[in-house]
Amino acid sequence: MGFNGWVKHTSDSDFTDWAKQCVVDYFNNRADVTDNVKITADNVFVVWFCKTLQNAKALLSTTVSDGMYYEFTYNGDKGEAYLDAYKKWQNTVWKP
Asked: Bridge partners of 75?
């Protein structure tokens, strides 16, 4: 499903399915061939999702233990979607 496949009248699950597929495509196109790992949408899960007016955002991760997480955003004003990929390096606690 592409940009024209998700509009404000489509369901939230259509958006999250689209987001999952984009993560699958991103991962599979960049995974090291020697790792011999390919994922499907069944390996991607939604951590958080929000839809406000014509915009939507989902935070996703995968069952691969590589520390990656993904942010998929649909900008309804521009009719554009963005996928940001992040790697968690560490979690540090700061106390006053």
From this structure: 80
